[in-house]
Amino acid sequence: MSRSRRPSPNAAVAAEPAGIGTAGARDPLSREVKLLGALLGQVIVEQAGAELFELVERVRRSAVAARRDGDPGLRATFAAEVAAIGLDRAEDVVRAFGLYFQLINLAEERHRVRILRRRGRAARGGVLDDSAAEAVETLRRRTGDAAVADLIGRLMISPVLTAHPTEARRRTLLLALRRCAGLLERLDDPRLTPEEDRDVRRRLREEITLLWRTTELRGVTPTPLDEVRTALAFFDETLFTLVPRLYRGLDAALDAADPRAPDGAAASDAGRTGTRPPRVGAFLHWGSWIGGDRDGNPSVTADLTERTLRIHADHVLRGYEAVATRLMQTLAAAVPTSDVPRALAGRLARDAETLEEADRQLRRRFPDEPYRQRFGFIAERLRRTRAFLTGTPAPLTGRYPSPDALDEELAEIQAALVAGGLERVAWGVVQDLRWQLATFGFHLAALEVRQHAAVHRAALAAVRAGAPGDTELVPGVDLDEVLATFRAVANLQARYGEAAIHRYVISFTSSPSDVTDVLDLASAAAIPDGTPPALDVVPLFESGAALAGAGEILDRLLADPRYRAHLAGRGNRQEVMLGYSDSNKEMGFVAANWMLHEAQAVLVAAAARHGVELTLFHGRGGAIGRGGGPTHRAIRGQAPGSVNARLKLTEQGEVIAAHYANPEIARRQLDQLVGAVLLASTPDHAAALEEVRRRGAPVVAELAESSRAAYRALVFDDLGFAAFFRSATPIAEIAGLRLGSRPAARGRAGGSGSGGSHEAASDAPPVDALRAIPWVFSWSQARIELPGWYGLGTALEAYRTAHGEPGLDEVGRLYRAWPFLTSVLDNAELSLARADMAVARRFASLARSPDDRRRWASIEEEYGRTARWLLRVTGRDRLLDGAPVVQRSIGLRNPYVDALSELQLRLLGDLRSRSSDDPDRERLRRLVQLTVNGVAAGLQGTG
Q: Are residues 732 and 867 in the same domain?
């Protein structure tokens, strides 16, 4: 290609900034967007030629004009511009827009961090809105210091990482984007010299060039171990160092509540928090399903679960070893031999006997520095512990038998430091390590096993019938594998400790026997004279029937003498999981949210009747149609008494990167969770919720029933709807994206990457067999977002018909007073704002039958009805008037997403017109999948 004509870099793909909250030359986000766009433009010219650059610019300008003016002629011009793109150029155009979105997402992330820092500097005493420190201040005024301290002492927050396949980006791409983010952060440093600034920009060009040449689509389906390693990248980069900062921030907030604090002391004053023992214990307990979730994924075997925990141990012990080595290098306080505390001297003597070679080296290097010697020994013992736990050849002596043994040594070091006048070191860096150890142990995250209740029923029936081990229970899973899982859990507990793996989640629980079946299988799996694993069995209620009967099921389970005996051995604590995804797919957005809220209430009541401590585990996804939306706001709307200082929730797919890739955003995310849990755990909050709930429950129940009927009539009662969905969305192409190791539909062998060419609509699995993730992902790609709003408009209109305008006024009052309803309606509003009926109409035209046209007409009418009545309830003139930054971001992104959507439509139509033996089919399918990635980046969400 000719590269002789090179346009100005400033006219690059991003000439008009996307997603900025404020415009203007002085706005740092605007400058950063323009810089990234200019650099991308240069890279496009260098790598693909000026002609491609000019083509991308024409498409961009045409998309902006069509969106801005709403002129049908301009829209037709835009469509013609896209239709003229040949297949040879289509991939480059898609990649240009897709990479642009990836870079702009980084810029917006950076700007969010800037805003957080700016607000932190401006805030009184460093207290941000919706933060843990603000919650402490609020609760101190209401309840007093003692009650706040008691509440924090009971605090338990458990984010659980899952490999649900919603992360469209390869790990290679994620890591490259993090390198770009680091370079962007450097550009924010006002101390950069001109030479350093030029070098950073050079390196950014280099990284963008590599991103341009990096293949976006996965060549093979990721294995579960690939997913494990991807998730642990966030531990290495963010979570390990973030945890002590979070604890210290909450600990500092308590200083402001301390009447002994000197006058004028700020909550963030490190003077006290560095010279006293901490008042905040380790309240974060990380979990993971990655490598343990075998529901519908035959790739997850007992052997793979064992390998997963080896990888966990390797990562976390390397982290501790690095900290101990750093402390060995820095804690250089000289102490005369006569002044070394007795406990420290005794520990050094024992180390010298066990680790003779290390003792010789440490005494030679640090003869009068006992703390450096001590941490040198700790680093060596951690190395041996890591070798033992990961199966690496190493000396059998000198390792730590448990995390408690290491913690005991660290406590001794702290006591010695305090006695020697080094309180700041004791309660500073050494305390940070103790907090990390208390949070991550030697296992990093508690691995949770999940399996479908039907598999357990079949396995137990096979055991009782004396069936052979190779009896297949479901496709890809035989009896031997089910029993091997329980044996693996017992072996792993013996090696890594019970905390490493002890929860067993049962998908689609429908009766108490689904829980006791797991205990029976654990006993059956125990080898002769063996001990079954120690298990906490977690029923997962996700279908409508199960959610409706959840209270009764738990009541019957807790009344079972045998199960209560088991539970007594587990501290009379019961965990119950609620599934947000499948319930939404089954009954629609409003009805699912209400049924989940009601299930919380009855489960709390059942546990209270039996004197059992209940923890609710929220299986929330990233998309609104799968329980997504701002988590800290949703927490405050949970059923009265359901939080009680405990929160457990899943972090799925692309949400893991969104929440935890950047340390500052990760801290803010967790800080908001802590603050929300604290505020939602007081008797006053529960009483206020109960009062508004009594008033609002009949209203929402009526809305939920109307909404459910409308949703079911469209999605399930119409036998042709599954075929319409298959035609009007890129579901087949999404199924072939190789997002994860799990299949896109239940009961189908192979991973989600097993899909080949486009299947006929008649080959589509029924809606109830389709997993919720590709269901939501596909509606998002078609710009319809149906799972996040459908049925709400019909419900509000029916309520107005039945109760008149005063009825809608009451819904509006409840919206403003009830955090639950506020969260539900705000999330629906966001889904409506992200949808685009003009683009969606084009996708719907891919389904060509008269019945399909009728189906689409119903969807479009419901969209208008929902937007109209929702605005009436909220009192706003336009969608998202209450969130102008988000409103503007969506508006500025839309033209660029339009370009990718138009390409996707054109390519889908072409793909579906080709015969099965057409040599271009695979190429077209790949191009459609590239547009899927690009649209996901532009919309900042998948499933």
A: yes
**Count of alpha carbons within 13 Å of 874, Cβ hemisphere only?**
24
Contact 599, 787 (CB under 8 A): no
For residues 888 and 747, state if they share a domain: yes
64 assigned to some structural domain: no
Q: Is residue 88 within 8 Å of 49, Cβ to Cβ? A: no
Helix (H) or strand (E) run with residue 287 in it: strand 287-288
Asked if 452 is an active-site residue, the reply is no
Residues found in the chain: 943
pLDDT tens digits along 84-139:
999 889 999 999 999 999 999 999 999 999 888 888 888 766 688 889 999 999 99
pLDDT digits (tens, 9 = 90+) for 362-399: 999 999 999 999 999 999 999 999 999 998 877 778 99
DSSP letters along 134-185, please? HHHHHHHHHH-HHHHHHHHHT-EEEEEEE--S---S-HHHHHHHHHHHHHHH
Q: What is the structure's pLDDT at 169?
A: 60
Segment 3-16 mean pLDDT: 37
Token pair recorded at residue 614: 């209940």
Q: What pLDDT does 425 receive?
A: 96
Judged by DSSP in three states, 128 sits in coil
DSSP string, 766-820: PGGGB-HHHHHHHHHHTT--GGGTTTHHHHHHHHHHHHHHHHHHHHHHHHHH-HH
Q: CA 630, 636, 640, 643 torsion: positive or negative?
A: positive
* Co-location of 478 and 402 in the same domain: no
Domain count, the chain: 3
* pLDDT confidence of residue 256: 66
Q: What angle do CA 852, 855, 861 make, to 5 degrees?
A: 140
CATH code at position 382: 1.20.1440.90
Confidence at 721, pLDDT banded by 50, 70, 90: very high
* End position of a domain, from candidates 421, 440, 459: 440
Asked whether residue 622 is assigned to any structural domain, the reply reads yes
Q: Is 71 within 8 Å of 78 (Cβ atoms)? A: no
Of the pLDDT bands very low, low, confident and very high (cuts 50, 70, 90), residue 279 is very high
Which of the following is catalytic: 111, 585, 597, 758?
585
Residue 432 has pLDDT above 80, yes or no: yes
Q: Is 648 one of the catalytic residues?
A: no
The one catalytic residue among 34, 164, 502, 659: 164
- Do the domain assignments include residue 683? no
Q: Within this chain, do residues 536 and 607 fall inside the same structural domain, yes or no? A: yes
Residues 483 and 421 in one domain: no
Say whether both 332 and 413 belong to one domain.
Answer: yes
Is the model more confident about 18 or about 611?
611
Question: Cα(63)–Cα(711) distance, rounded to whole angstroms?
Answer: 33
Report if pTM > 0.70. Answer: yes
Cα(333)–Cα(330) distance, integer angstroms: 9
Which among 643, 661, 679 is the end of a domain?
Answer: 661
Sort strands 449-452 and 613-619 into parallel, antiparallel or unpaired.
unpaired
Task: Give a yes or no: residue 323 inside a domain.
Answer: yes
Q: What is the pLDDT of residue 657?
A: 83
Rounded to whole angstroms, how far apart are CA atoms 21 and 890? Answer: 10
One domain, residues 468 and 336: no
Question: Are the beta carbons of 631 and 620 closer than 8 angstroms?
Answer: yes
Which residues form the domain of 507? Answer: 447-661
Task: Write the CATH number for 502.
Answer: 3.20.20
Same domain, residue pair 415 and 464: no
Rounded to whole angstroms, the Cα distance separating 76 from 580 reads 40
Q: Where are the alpha helices (DSSP H) in 782-920?
A: 792-817, 819-834, 837-844, 850-874, 884-913
